[in-house]
Amino acid sequence: MGNNIRNIQCLTLSEMNDKLNNKELAEYIFNFNSKNKISSAPETTVIAYVMSYFKPLSFKRIAGTNVIINGTHGNYIVSFQLQEKIYNSLSKRTLSSDLTLKLCDSTTTDIIAKIGIEYDGHSEHVTSYGIVEDKRKDLSVLKQTGMVRLRIQPEMFQTNEEKKDVYRAVKKYFEQYIKLIPREKRSVKSGRTYIECPLCEGVQILGSQSCPVCLGDGSVKKNVYIGLDIEVFDTFDCPDCTKRTIKNCRKCRGTSFLNRNEAINIRREELKRL
Ligand SMILES: [Zn+2]
Ligand SMILES: [Zn+2]
Questions:
Q1: Is cis: bond before 56, omega within 30 of 0?
Q2: Are 167 and 232 in the same domain?
């Protein structure tokens, strides 16, 4: 290992349970193995972190070793798959993808977008041979399935902000596809089943971004968001400091981040002026 940090701090089972707020799912992820090969603790830790941003999460065992893991993103479902098998036409072998996230329509369950996440903890990934091999695999997966894969190196997954950046990137990726859905299809709502968004309290924009829970709608499906853990979303990018931190910024006091209350209040003030 030497001086470079090719490692991350791993979650214990109880920490994973706290993160996911779902005991069965936490146990499943914590003990996850494929082909009798136990997944590394760093890998399951990364998977748990990514999933934690899509709470509430549901876990269901179906036939054999198959499971259904679903999360929530605005009024959409995010379906998670561990070790999805993809045929590699170049090597004529099957390769597995660490984590696949599928953004689905909550009524039709049609897939809107799909992205893969790979945790590259093993040192083979940073040898020149390994780097080329990874790129080859990514090319093959994209060619075969249309799915891009985001590769996470341990050095990129140290601080809380770095962990959240992975989520921010996935969210941004999903947003591009959501924007392609015609407006009228995006917001078919009846007053009874929708409530004001518990995170942004209806103000729609927090900091410089649309609210990560309602995706800027200001309202969410009532049944889905019972038990939402708003603590997960604790910092928001300052709208005035998105490119660089301004020392005397009055909104964020030079930190470039706002907490939830600050973000809501700033947006409320802004709405008054509109
Ligand atoms: Zn919201
Ligand atoms: Zn600022």
A1: yes
A2: no
Q: Which of 121, 106, 101 is nearest to 53 (CA)?
A: 101
Is 183 a member of any domain?
Answer: no
Number of domain units in the chain:
2
* Residue ranges near ligand 2 (ion) with Cβ within 5 Å: 238, 240-241, 249, 251-252
Q: Quote the ligand 2 centre to 4 CA distance (angstroms).
A: 32
Q: Which ligand lies nearest to the CA atom of residue 219 in the structure?
A: 1
Q: How do beta strands 148-152 and 111-119 pair?
A: parallel
Between the CA of 214 and the centroid of ligand 1 the distance, in Å, is 4
Does residue 235 contact residue 164 with C-beta atoms inside 8 Å? Answer: yes
Distance (Å) from CA 258 to ligand 2 centroid: 8
Residue 219 lies in domain: 189-273
- Tell me the two tokens of residue 12: 């214990």
Instruction: Provide the residue-wise pLDDT of the chain in tens; the chain has 274 residues.
Output: 444 668 899 999 999 999 999 999 999 999 987 655 666 889 999 999 999 999 999 998 887 678 889 999 988 999 999 988 888 777 788 888 899 999 998 888 889 999 999 999 888 898 999 999 999 999 999 998 899 999 999 999 999 999 999 999 999 999 999 989 887 777 555 556 778 888 999 898 999 888 888 888 888 877 766 667 777 788 898 888 866 667 788 888 888 889 999 999 999 988 888 7
| End-of-domain residue from the set 124, 143, 178 | 178
Query: Which neighbouring-strand residues pair with 101?
Result: 80, 115
